[in-house]
Amino acid sequence: MNLLLEFKVIDVPSQLIKLTYDIPSHYSKHICAFSRPFLMTSPPVDILYQQKAVNGYMINNITFFVRQSASFSTAKAEAEMAFYCMLTGSVLMNINKPLHQGQYTLINDNSIPLLLDLEPGIYELHQYGYTKTHLINLAKATYPRTIFIQLHQAINEVKITRIHSSLTEIWLETKLKEILILFLDDHISPKNEEHLDIILNFIHNNLDKDISISQLTKMYYISESTLRRSFIRKFGTSFSQYLQKTRLEKGEDLLAHTNNPVHEIALQVGYRSAAAFAHAFKQHFGYTPTIIRERSAIVN
Q1: Alpha helix stretches (DSSP H) within the chain
Q2: Membrane-crossing residues (predicted)?
Q3: Contact, 143 vs 90, CB < 8 A?
Q4: Long-range pairs for 162-171: beta carbons < 8 A, 24 or more residues apart
């Protein structure tokens, strides 16, 4: 079996270590969905491995079933930076700090072996590995992109916020990290923006129809959470608020530039009655559709 063992058991002879794809049923609840698991067995410990390489990135989910106290060390890794997330149990690593259940740590020199001492029990460690090349590629120059609202707000905070204390540099460093994350998030998700442009075009051409976010996610194969975030990031508003604003602004334009009756305009922009349209219109603009008609009549 040509498998990569992230951890080796210290002081256990290699002839006592076995690898198998046959996973005992009592370990099945610890299996993840992203890859085929394999099991390393030895007298003091069984280790359930799940590994997945994605364009050079590495994902590991490792569960230790420790029967006797044992020590472990990591093999030399290709990744130069790794996130270790402790999902079950707590360990003391050679980084001199305990990693408790529910915590993660970033190790930016993954060439140094990681040492673990484990007592009997179950421990689950989730790991993501990155190389320097990956990090450089993430930050490569790209085509110009719109300064979305969260980025705009962060930039404005840097421009106008005055902090008269020793915390100025700490605050600025925090904001710079936030802006870097926003840049990278926008850079590595270009398809989301393309999806959004297509969805916006559909919305503007179908205002007379019922439109729901669940309908759009099925039509354009995008998750609901991603689509919701896209609206907030680009417009600073939720999908439902954007849809209502678009309906009412279109209704205002039709009131000003056509002679269509109000009940017809209401249907054209997705309201089932003139009363529902007028109520929403008054709440949004602060005046009724009749005012628009009167103003248009004066101008004409």
Answers
A1: 132-138, 149-160, 168-187, 190-205, 213-220, 224-235, 239-257, 262-268, 274-285, 289-299
A2: none
A3: no
A4: none
Measure the CA–CA gap between 140 and 95, rounded to whole angstroms.
32
Q: Are 244 and 281 in contact (CB under 8 A)?
A: no
Sheet hosting strand 115-118, strand order edge to edge: 7-9, 70-74, 115-118, 91-93, 98-99
Please state the rounded mean pLDDT for residues 276-293: 91
SS3 at position 47:
strand
Query: What distance in Å separates the CA atoms of residue 278 and residue 138, rounded to the nearest whole number?
Result: 49
Contact 250, 208 (CB under 8 A): no
The whole model's pTM is what? 0.52
> C-alpha angle with apex 183: 182 to 188, nearest 5 degrees?
100
Query: For residue range 113-164, what is the model confidence (pLDDT) as tens digits?
Result: 778 889 999 999 988 877 767 666 665 655 556 666 777 788 878 777 877 7
Which class for 227: exposed (0-12), middle (13-18), buried (19 or more C-beta within 10 A)?
buried
In the chain, what is the greatest distance between 2 CA atoms, to the nearest angstrom? 95
Which of these, 95, 78, 77, lies nearest to 86 by C-alpha position?
A: 95
Beta bridge mates, 108: none
Q: Which of 248, 254, 255 minimizes the C-alpha distance to 281?
A: 248
Rounded (10°) angle between helices 274-285 and 239-257: 100
Q: Which two tokens stand for residue 151?
A: 């980025």
Q: Over the stretch 234-245, which tens digit does the pLDDT of each residue have?
A: 788 899 999 999
